UniProtKB/TrEMBL annotation:
Beta-D-galactose binds at N85, R86, H177, T178, Y179, D243. InterPro entries: Aldose_1-epimerase (IPR015443), Aldose_1/G6P_1-epimerase (IPR008183), Gal_mutarotase_sf_dom (IPR011013), Galactose_mutarotase-like (IPR047215), GH-type_carb-bd (IPR014718). GO terms for biological process: galactose catabolic process via UDP-galactose, Leloir pathway; glucose metabolic process. This is Aldose 1-epimerase. Keywords: Carbohydrate metabolism, Isomerase, Signal. Pathway: Carbohydrate metabolism; hexose metabolism. Belongs to the aldose epimerase family. GO terms for molecular function: aldose 1-epimerase activity; carbohydrate binding. It comes from the Eukaryota.
Length: 343
């Protein structure tokens, strides 16, 4: 009886915490587009693209081995959550009850706390190497979470993040934390990349990067990328660089809206992004300091850029922000679509 109980507890532990899942790597390839992943954190570990002359380069920052991602504090390529970005004061009120979250950045919570979705082993629900891969994670707190990476045509990558709370209202805000460098992951900084953000407003933050609750227009300021310009052209006017949530123009919902266009002149590569989310965090890797990456790369400040489509940061503490609360019977759906070209 004792042995049977021990076996049941062990199986339950494996299901709940994914301890029985083996960490592996997976590859999707179609045409000239090749993307690799690991089920640790559902991380995108590489993405190979041709330049205008057909030369292939890996355009995402990362590590050579899974162990690098286990010890990572940069969130390279990971799916972050349950609540991406920051929760001010590591607490929020929901339906009259105060909830405490894990303060892993001073007094605040960042990307789900010390052990968010980026630090767990996901199972693989479906895998077709020429088409798609679906990772699944059953949270100990009662959500079923899935992320699907899918190749569309020969130059598009779709990312679909889904979640369903089981028995109680839950804040959910997942994000893909890929660091991009369209020249190549080990080529230096991204300050000469040009970017256009189809977003005329931002949610300003305090010194701890917690939103103040305001939504302000950015026209004419260093945050203004309504027309394409080099990332480095006004970055010195900001403390450290860009790390801010932009309010994507238009109405968020089921339909995808064009969010950003990034280009790199010397290779001719261009990346376009669409999403159904209300915001996008534009981050210029301000905190990278000699991180030892793959292929002996050493990633320094501004080595990559992140475009994390998302719900607004700290929306659980700002009633004027779009809600991130998902109730039982409802579903969370977050879609990103990337198109890659070279001219």
């Amino acid at each position: 009886m004792a042995k049977r109980l021990m076996l049941v507890l062990l199986l339950l532990c494996c299901v709940t915490y994914s301890l029985c899942e083996e960490i592996q790597t997976y590859k999707l390839t179609r045409g000239n587009l090749s993307v690799t992943f690991t089920n640790y954190g559902a991380v995108m570990t590489s993405l190979l693209l041709p330049d205008r002359h057909g030369k292939q380069d890996d355009v995402v920052l990362g590590f050579d081995t899974v162990d690098g991602y286990k010890n990572d504090t940069t969130y390279f390529g990971a799916i972050v959550g349950r609540v991406a970005n920051r929760i001010g004061g590591a607490e929020f009120e929901l339906n009259g009850q105060m909830y405490k979250t894990d303060p892993n950045e001073g007094h605040n919570t960042l990307h789900g706390g010390a052990k968010g979705f980026s630090d767990v082993i996901w199972s693989v629900e479906n895998y077709v190497p020429t088409s798609h891969i679906t990772f699944k994670y059953d949270s100990f707190d009662g959500e079923e979470v899935k992320v699907t990476y899918m190749l569309i045509g020969e130059n598009k990558l779709a990312v679909k993040m889904e979640a369903k709370p089981i028995n109680k209202p839950t804040p959910i805000n997942l994000a893909l934390h890929t660091y991009w460098n369209l020249h190549s992951h080990n080529s230096g900084d991204i300050l000469s990349h040009k970017i256009q953000l189809l977003a005329g407003k931002i949610t300003p933050v305090d010194k701890k990067l917690i939103p103040t609750g305001e939504i302000t227009a950015i026209e004419g300021t260093p945050y203004d990328f309504l027309e394409p310009r080099e990332i480095g052209s006004r970055i010195d006017e900001l403390p450290g660089g860009y790390d801010i949530n932009y309010v994507i123009d238009g109405i968020a919902g089921k339909h995808l809206r064009k969010t950003a266009i990034v280009s790199e002149e010397s290779t001719g590569r261009k990346m376009e992004l669409w999403s159904n989310q209300p915001g996008v965090q534009f981050y210029t890797s301000n905190l990278l300091t000699r991180v030892a990456g793959k292929e002996r790369a050493v990633y320094k400040k501004h080595a990559g850029l992140c475009l994390e489509t998302q719900g607004f940061p700290d929306s659980v503490n700002h009633n004027n922000f779009p809600s991130q609360i998902v109730n039982p019977g409802e579903s969370y759906l977050h879609v990103m679509l990337f198109r890659f070209t070279a001219h």
